[in-house]
Amino acid sequence: MNTSIIAAGKDLQWKDSLTTESSLVRRLLIAAAFLYLTLFLFVPLVAIFSEALKHGLSGYIESFFNEDALAAIRLTLLVAAVAVPLNAVFGVAAAWAIAKFEFVGKQALITLIDMPLAVSPVIAGLIYVLLFGAQGWLGTWLAEHDIKIIFALPGIVLATIFVTVPFVARELIPLMQSQGREEEEAAITLGASGWQMFRRVTLPNIKWSLLYGVILCNARAMGEFGAVSVVSGHIRGLTNTMPLHVEILYNEYNAVSAFAVASLLTLLAIVTLSAKVLIERKTASPDRLKSRR
Amino acid sequence: MKIKQLASIAVFLTGFFLGVSSIQAAEPVVILNVSYDPTRELYQEFNAAFAKHWLAKTGQKVTIKQSHGGSSKQARAVIDGLEADVVTLALAYDVDAISEKAALIPSNWQTRFPQNSAPYTSTIAFLVRKGNPKGIKDWDDLVKPGVSVITPNPKTSGVARWNYLAAWGYALRQSGHDEAKAKEFIAQLFKNVPVLDSGARGATTTFVEHGIGDVLINWENEILLGGEGLGKDKFDVVVPPTSILAEPTVSLVDKIVDKRGTRTVAQAYLEYLYSEEGQEISAKHYYRPRLPSVAAKYTKFPKLELFTLQEFFGDWQKANKTHFADGGTFDQVYLQLSKERR
Fold it and tell me: How far are the Cα atoms of A81, B139, B281 from residue B301, in angstroms, in the given order?
C-alpha cells in the first residue's frame, strides 16, 4: 500500500504534478470515458450506417438519386454557402472590434453574439415568423411588394445565420485579445495601409482559428433542424433541407432512405472533425508557436 | 391613313400579346398542396394521376408540390404566409382558422365543393398488439385500469380532436346525453394516456416503432395502413361498433390562386378528387370513398354505425369552443389529472 503510493508519487513527478490519483483510478476513469463515448456516440453512429446499408449498397445509393433528396442536398449546400461566408466576415469584424478597441457597449455586443447559443432554435425561427410572416410586423409590406422571406430560401438562410453567428466570432475573440495590437501598430508605423496590415499581419495570425471557426459554423449550418423547421414550410423538393428530409423520410416509414441521408450528414460531420483535428495539429506545431511569439 | 396603320399595328400587337398569354397558360405550372400528416401516400399517387389527366386534357404540364405536418400547424403556416394554392386538412376548423385569421378564404368555403368539401371520409378506430391481449373491442374497454392508450394532443393534432369527440359522443350515447358522465369518461380515458404526441404520424410511430401502449386511437386510414403496411403479424385492427364520421376537408386558397393565376388548375385539382379515379386512389389508401360505385368495390372497410359531428356538437366552432379552447373540457380534465398525479 505504502509503496504503491510512493511509486505513484514518483510517477507523478515524472508525468504530471497536478494529478494525485493512483494509476488504477486513472485507468478506470479513462475506461469509463471510453465506455460512455462508445455507448452514446459510437454505437449510434454504427447503427446509422448499418440501418442505411440494410438493403445493400444499391438501396443506399438509390436513396440519394431521387428529386427530393437531391433538392434537399442542394438546398443545404446553398444555405451553408451563403450563411458561412457572411458569418465569417461578421465574425472577423466583430472579433477585431472587440479585441483591439475599447468602446461603449462592448459587453453588450459580446452578449449579443452569444445569444444564439442561449436561445432555443425554435425561438430563433419564430422571431422571423413574427417579423416577416404574413401576419407579422413587415408582413403586409412584404406581401405588397411580393417579397417572400418566410417559407422560402431567404427565411431558411436567415434562420441558419442566426444560429451560427457565434461560432467564428467566439473562436477569434480570445485569440485576438491575447495577441494584442502591437504587431498591427508596428505595421501601421512602418507605413502599411489598413488593408495591407490586415492581409499581411492580422490574417496570418488568426488564419487557423478562423478556419476552425468556419468549420464549426459550417457543421452547424448544415445540421440545423429546429430553427429551419419553423421557417421552412416543409415543401418537398423546394424548402426541405437535409435534416428536415431525414425526418420526413422516417415519418414515411422509409427508414433505409432516412438513415442513408442521415449517414451523409454524419459523413459531413466526420470530414469536418478530421479537418478540425488537422488544424489543431497545425496550430500546435512548434513553428506556429514560434511565429506567434 | 396613318391612324388606320396605327390601329392595325395596335390590333396586331394586342393579338400578339394575347397569343403570348395564351401560350403562357399552357406553360408548366406549379401548385402547392398544404396537407396534414397521414395523407402523404395518398397525395403522392393522386398528384401523379392528376398531372397525367391534366396534361391529356389541356396539354399543360402541372407539378404539385406537397407539404405535410400536423393539421393545425399547417393551417398556422398558411396564415403566416406559406403560399398554398390548395389546403387539404384534417378538419374544417383548421380551414376556418385560415379564413378567419388571414382572410385568404371566404367564410362560405365549405359550400363550394360537394359533400361539405370533404371528398373522402374516414372514422376513428383502434390498433392493438397482435392477438389483442387486453381484449379491446369498444370504447369502454379503453378506460379500464391497466390499459395504456396512445392518442395525440388535441391542442395541436386534428385527429386527436376527432378521437376526443368520438369518445365523448360514444359516452353521450351510452349515458343518454349526460354531459357530466361524458366528461368523467374522458377523464378516465386520459388517465390511461402515457404520452401525448403532437400529431397523428408521431402517435403511430410511438405505438408501432417504439412499442409503447396497448392501443392506438387514430384515423381508420392510418390504422389500416399501420396494420397492413407495417406488420400484419404484429398488430390487429379493431373497429369499434360505433364511431364518428370524420370529414377531412379541402379548399382553394383564393387570395393565393388569384395572385399566382392558378385558380383554374387548382379548382380542377380538387374536383378531380371527386372523380372515379380520385375516389379509387382515396379508397386504395384507406380513405372511405364518397362515390357509391367505388365504395361498392372496396369491401375492406368494416361496417359500423357512424354518428356525425353535427349530431352531438353542432359545428366545429362550437365543438372547439367547448372542448379545445383554453379552459375547455380538455383543459379541465387535464388539470384535474395532473393534480391527481401529484
Answer: 51, 19, 14
Q: Are B30 and B66 in contact (CB under 8 A)?
A: no
* C-alpha cell belonging to residue A76: 443545404
CA distances from B194 to A68, A69, B32, B305 (A): 35, 35, 36, 29
Look up residue A262 and give its amino acid. Answer: A
On chain B, the residues whose CB falls within 8 A of the CB of A258 are none
Cα–Cα separations (whole angstroms), residue B86 to B102, B224, B256: 15, 26, 9
Q: What is the rounded CA–CA span in Å between residue B215 and residue B165? A: 17
The ipTM value here is: 0.75
Which residue, A162, A168, A155, is CA-closest to A90?
A168
Joined together, the cell numbers standing for residue B116 give 361539405
Q: What tens digit of pLDDT does each residue of A66-119 get?
A: 888 999 999 999 999 999 999 999 999 999 999 988 999 999 999 999 999 999
Using the 8-state DSSP alphabet, how is residue B324 labeled? I
3-state secondary structure of B64: strand
Q: Which of B41, B71, B80 is the best residue to mutate to test the A interface, defined by the most A CB atoms within 10 Å of its own CB? A: B80
- For residues A26 and A32, give the distance between their C-alpha atoms in angstroms, rounded to a whole number: 10
- What is the distance between the alpha carbons of residues B147 and A156, in angstroms, rounded to a whole number? 43
Interface mutation target, options A131, A151, A239, chain B, most CBs of B under 10 Å: A151
Q: Does A136 touch chain B (CB under 8 A)?
A: yes
Specify the DSSP element, H or E, that contains B242. Answer: strand B242-246
Q: How far apart are CA B217 and CA B126, in angstroms?
A: 5
Q: A213, A217, A236, A92: which is closest to A160 by C-alpha?
A: A217
Tens digits of residue pLDDT in A255-265:
889 999 999 99
Q: In chain B, which residues have their Cβ closer than 8 Å to the Cβ of A143?
A: 81
φ/ψ of B62, rounded to 5, equals -125, 135
> Which of helix, strand or coil describes residue B131?
coil
Alpha helices in chain A (DSSP H): 2-14, 23-37, 43-52, 56-62, 67-100, 106-118, 121-132, 139-144, 153-164, 166-179, 182-189, 194-197, 203-223, 226-232, 242-251, 255-284, 286-292
A110/B contact by beta carbon, under 8 A? no
**CA nearest neighbour of B186 among B158, B215, B151:** B151
